Amino acid sequence: MGYTILSIASTSFFADYGAHVRIWEETRALQKLGHRIVIATYHNGDNMPGFEIRRSWDVPWVKRTMVGASHHKMYLDVALSWRALRVAMEIKPDLIHAHIHESALIGSVLSRMFKVPLVFDYQGSLTAEMLDHGFLKRDGMFYKPFHWLEDKINRTADAVLTSSFNAANMLRDDWKFPAERLYTVPDSVNTDRFKPFDSSAEWHTERERIRSELGIPAGRKIVAYLGLLAAYQGTNVLLEAAQIIRQQRDDVHFLIMGYPDVRSYLALAESLGVADIVTMPGRILYKDAHAYLALGDVAVAPKMSATEGAGKIPNYMAVGLPVITFDTPVSHEILGDAGVYAKFGDAQSLADEILGLIDNPERRHNLAQTVRTRAVNEHSWELAARQIEAIYERVLAKRAGNPLPEFPTSLQREQGS
User: Fold this and answer.
1) What is the dihedral of CA 150, 156, 162, 167, to 10 degrees?
2) Contact between residue 313 and residue 22 where contact means Cβ atoms under 8 Å apart
3) First to last CA, the chain
C-alpha cells in the first residue's frame, strides 16, 4: 500500500551537499516503492525532476543557499510553517516525515492537528551544530534553553531515524530517548551512479577532459574531497595537511570540491603556500559528482563534528576510493577495518596517512575493492527505503492501536557490520 507523505525540509532543498542528498535519495527510493512524497521547503533551491516540491513564499533578500545555522532561519521557518500547513490541508497526509530539528518542530504541530504520526529524520544534534557554527557557547546563557528545546523536539516524534548507530547510542544514553522509538537508517549511496570508472577508451577520454578543464597537471596523485567547505567539515585542517605535504613533495594534488566561501579558502590556500597543488572548482552538481570523484586516487573526509553523519563516505566507497578520515565512531561504523584513520583534528597525522596511502598502490587497490563491495552490500538506498517503509508501517499501526508488525530481519543492519 502506498502512503501519502508530507516531507518537511527546513533548508534550501535541493542543494548539492550531504543532508540534501539524503533527502533526495530517500524520496526517490520511496517513490519507487509506490509512495507519494510532497516536499515542503524554503523558497530557494533547485527543483528536481519527478519531485513534488512546494516552496514557502519568496524572501527576495535571501537568495543564497541556507547551510547550517543562520539568523535568517527564524523567519524562513515561519514561512515554511504556513506552507506546510497549506500542503497538509491539500494532500491530507498519512504521516509526516521531517528532516532537521526545525522541520520536526513544525511537523509536531501538524502531527497533532491532523492526528497523523511524525517520523523525524535526525541528522545530528541541534545544539552541537550551533556550537560547531559558533552560534552557541557551552557555558553561555542560551545553551541550556536550546538543549531543553532540542530534547522536547526529539520526543514529539513517533519515531526518530538516525543516520548512524553512534547518533542512536547518543540519543539513548545521553538524552534518555526511548529505545522503542529509535531506528537507525545509515547513510547510503546510489551504487548504480557511483561506481568505479571502467577501462573503456570513452571513459578514459572523459576523465582526462575533466582533469584538463580543472587544470590539474599530469603525473600528480589526486586527493579528492567533495562536501561543504567549513571549519567543522575539516577544510582548514585539510589545507594545513596540504601545506605539510607541499613542504616535502609536489606530486600530490588536492581536489577540494564544494561550497560556500570558495574565495576565502582559495585565499587561505594562497597564504599557506599550497595554491599550486590545490584546485577548488566550487559547487559540483550531484548528477556530476561521481565523474569528478572518479578523478581521485584517494578520498578524504576530515569532518570535525562528533555528532553528525558522514554521507560523503558511502559515495567515496561506491566509487572505489580508499578513504582517509579522522578517528571517530561514525567513521569506524561506516568503514570498519577498511578505513584509514588519522588522529582527530591533527593535520600532521592526516598528512602522514595521505602520503602513506599514496605511496602504497597495493594497499590502495585492496582497499578500493573492499569499500566498493561494502557499499554495494550494506549501503544501498533500496535497502534504506525498505527500512523506512517498515518504520512507517509500525508508527501507523501504533497510532491505530494495532499490534506492531515485526521489523523484518532481512532489513536489520548491525552496528559495525
Assistant:
1) 40
2) no
3) 31
